[in-house]
């Protein structure tokens, strides 16, 4: 059984587990399934906006899909969420990626 199948098996038991959904999205990125990853990241952040780790990956996914404007929006949302959570490391990563994209 491959990693994706195993994660899906776990998700069948715990469908709202953000760690598992995030892990599945990362696996989809590895095999070039950007849209599936994007859908998972959006679901995570729509339901749980304080799941800070998904903002960066969602915005990067949007960059790879050539949607710069949406990526900027998600970087900005992520920076706000990271600041609210006092997660300086995530804030710095999001800000750096945002600046690389904007400037």
Structural features, described:
The protein is mainly α and 103 residues long. It has one domain: Tetratricopeptide repeat domain (Serine Threonine Protein Phosphatase 5, Tetratricopeptide repeat). The chain contains six helices and no strands. The protein has helices at 3-13, 18-30, 34-47, 53-64, 68-84, 88-102. α1 packs antiparallel against α2, α3 runs antiparallel to α4 (53-64) and α4 runs antiparallel to α5. The longest helix is centred in the C-terminal third of the chain and has 17 residues, at 68-84.
Give the topology, please.
Elements: H1 3-13, H2 18-30, H3 34-47, H4 53-64, H5 68-84, H6 88-102
Helix pairs in contact: 1-2, 2-3, 3-4, 4-5, 4-6, 5-6
**Uncertain regions spanning at least 5 consecutive residues:** none
The whole-number mean of residue pLDDT values reads 97
Number of strands: 0
| CATH superfamily annotation | Tetratricopeptide repeat domain
Helix tally equals: 6
Number of domains: 1
Elements, N to C (H/E)? HHHHHH
**Main beta sheet: strand number and arrangement?**
none
Structural class based on helices, strands and sheet pairing: mainly alpha
CATH topology: Serine Threonine Protein Phosphatase 5, Tetratricopeptide repeat
N- and C-termini, Cα separation: 44 Å
Under the CATH scheme, the architecture is Alpha Horseshoe
Helix content: over 70%
Please report the first level of CATH classification, the CATH class.
Mainly Alpha
Shape field = globular
Strand coverage percent: under 5%
Radius of gyration: 14 Å
């Amino acid at each position: 059984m491959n990693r994706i199948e195993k994660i899906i098996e776990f998700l069948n038991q715990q469908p709202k587990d953000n760690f598992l959904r995030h892990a599945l999205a990362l696996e989809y990125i590895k095999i070039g399934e950007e849209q599936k990853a994007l859908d998972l990241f959006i679901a995570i952040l729509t339901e749980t906006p304080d799941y800070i780790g998904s903002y960066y990956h969602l915005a990067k996914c949007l960059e790879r899909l050539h949607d710069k404007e949406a990526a900027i929006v998600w970087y900005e949302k992520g920076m706000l969420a990271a600041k609210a959570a006092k997660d300086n490391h995530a804030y710095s990563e999001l800000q750096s990626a945002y600046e690389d994209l904007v400037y």
